[in-house]
């Protein structure tokens, strides 16, 4: 999502170098594991090693983020728990977000979703999770979307 101009909660896309720099400059972070699926993504990652300070700088993007940019975006924080139907909403939202930025849903992602103990289809739209969510995520809609994407 962060790489997408449309999906980024900061109102503009970040580069892989900027994301790596953000992660590596958090307190106590010593290393970052990167997931890649193409040679281009590997090259975009190793570009960090030779990137200039200006290329690493993410501060302007964060500083200019719209105030309400995180509203409606799941942060996978889990504050919506406990769930009346025991669905792990944070995990469902995470797999859904990962699926929606792919052209086709990877089999590994489908497998991860399938391994959840409870699936979005079990949602009874009670709305309790929405009351607890500090980010205004339309959770019931997200659960319906997950059913469409993952089939259950
Ligand atoms: S739906 Fe809201 S409360 Fe639940 S994990 Fe996402 S951001 Fe957190």
Fill in the keyword field for this structure:
152 residues, mainly alpha, 2 domains, globular, binds iron/sulfur cluster
Textual characterization of the structure:
This is 4Fe-4S ferredoxin-type domain-containing protein. InterPro entries: 4Fe4S_Fe-S-bd (IPR017896), 4Fe4S_Fe_S_CS (IPR017900). Residues 112-143 form the 4Fe-4S ferredoxin-type domain. It is a single chain. The protein has 152 residues and is an all-alpha fold. The chain folds into 2 domains: 16-63, no CATH class; 89-150. The protein is 41% helix and 0% strand. The protein is built from 8 helices and no strands. The chain has helices spanning 16-24, 39-46, 53-56, 59-63, 89-100, 107-114, 128-132, 139-150. The longest helix has 12 residues, at 89-100. It starts with 15 loop residues before the first helix and ends with a helix. The mean pLDDT is 91. Bound molecules: iron/sulfur cluster (SF4). Residues 74-80, 89-90, 93, 132-133, 135, 137, 139 line the site of iron/sulfur cluster.
């Amino acid at each position: 999502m962060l790489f997408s101009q449309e999906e980024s909660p900061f109102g503009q896309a970040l580069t892989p170098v900027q994301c790596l720099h953000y992660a590596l400059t958090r307190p106590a972070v010593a290393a970052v594991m990167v997931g890649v699926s193409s040679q281009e993504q590997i090259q975009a990652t190793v570009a960090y090693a030779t990137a200039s300070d200006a290329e690493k700088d993410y501060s302007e993007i964060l500083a200019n983020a719209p105030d309400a940019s995180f509203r409606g975006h799941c942060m996978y924080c889990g504050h919506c728990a406990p769930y009346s139907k025991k669905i792990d909403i944070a995990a469902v939202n995470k797999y859904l977000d990962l699926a929606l930025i792919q052209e086709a849903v990877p089999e590994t992602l489908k497998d991860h979703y399938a391994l959840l103990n409870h699936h979005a289809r079990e949602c009874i739209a009670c709305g309790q999770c929405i009351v607890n969510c500090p980010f205004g995520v339309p959770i019931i809609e997200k659960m319906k979307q997950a059913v469409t994407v993952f089939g259950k």
